[in-house]
């Protein structure tokens, strides 16, 4: 964040200095530094000139060369300018004011050289009015319209070649922030992975040497002024066109840098202030703001991971009062962070297209470094309900949907689930009831069954009791399932009758039902009148081009299921009692043992 803050403050500072310069041609100067050689002074004066206006170089006697700014119309104006420079990290701590009496000949710009034109930037208020989105009642406001990265410096003389000794001299004049920026840029370029501390030890020197070799320079381990400019320029170039702006959203109580070149404010959908793409880059930014406690923070953490914009592949970290989520897929990369403080949850999310990691990483880091929670929290009533509401949206954002959804049911008290084998044969991820990751630990393709074992043991309220007694034909049965995927939070009972205790071709391991089921019901338990499980509903699959009537369904027989599970070392509950259970009680029993199986 330090480099970005320097450039932002430098841009705002340049306006102050330009106005002061226009007021008078003589007055008070700021002496930024002095160098013992003109080579070192030439290097330093160009560095300052690339960051702000009104920079000059004057001789001090026969052996010293001053780098100055000014003149300013009054000592008060110069004092204010020096204060801004120090706050921005542009002026060293020992910079001071002078009346210029000791200045000799001007060495930079050389006499006769054209001075860079003074062009004042648009006032921040005007720039904010041009770039800030407008809504009827409230909207985030751009509070600093300066670009995140410096604009290219005006054309000046080429930076002279430096010997190793000259490079060491110019390096010694670097500020702490400038040294840290070099280490950061070396790390971004892939040559440095140690602490960013501004100390140029063995690790930093080795990284500089490796970078020089990669760029075709002599590997001296000391970067010249031109090489430093090239390295930092490459580091900042990924932000070209992003127009990072400091945005303050008083409704959400958040202040943060936002890439306004790629996104613009669209709407409030509590707990989010949403910024959508404004150009060719399909990017999004979300500001998070809501009142709450730790339970609500943890709930937000879980909900965000159901959204399609946060892929499941990536690091997750949840602490007592904060969390971070990173996600990467073939299409998108995203990051979200939130903190709980004083009963308020504040944070942000950045969503970016995959394949542009260098830019994503820079913007993410700038947003993290600039994020600031201010007074205010998003009012849930700021957005009125409209016709775009949908069950599969959270605050207007699409929930991540599974590839397929089927039904399963608990078969033991460890939480293992029996389901349709076809539904889980090509899944990258499987979940039970949407939130419990599970793994396929047993499959019988001949029977079409699979056993899922949850990654963390579950404690079901009820497990299946498989019926070993032969049921009577035409008795009423019911399948428990999720015919509409996860739209309904509890299983639905579909009633029918037992049409035959064998398949159409006399298969002993099948039973035929007169029952109209949907695809989502496959894998569900089929109950008899007493709540015992007669078998598992099979998916409808057309064979030899033959499509059966919609009310013809099949189940795999309970005896075959029990035998297969026993052979795999899985004990099950069985019963030979034929009883009667009211539909209301059967519905409760089904809800306790039936689960939604999602394939991602």
Q: Describe it for me?
A:
The protein is an alpha+beta fold. The protein is built from twelve helices and 32 strands. It has a seven-stranded antiparallel beta sheet with strand order 9-10-11-15-14-13-12, sandwiched between helices. A six-stranded antiparallel β-barrel has the order 19-20-23-22-21-32. A six-stranded antiparallel β-barrel has the order 25-26-27-30-29-28. The longest helix is centred in the first third of the chain and has 22 residues, at 2-23.
Concise structural overview:
Mean pLDDT is 82; it is low at 1-25, 114-137, 145-157 and 389-395. This protein has 600 residues and is α+β, with helices and mostly antiparallel strands. Strand 2 (55-60) and strand 3 (64-72) form a beta hairpin.
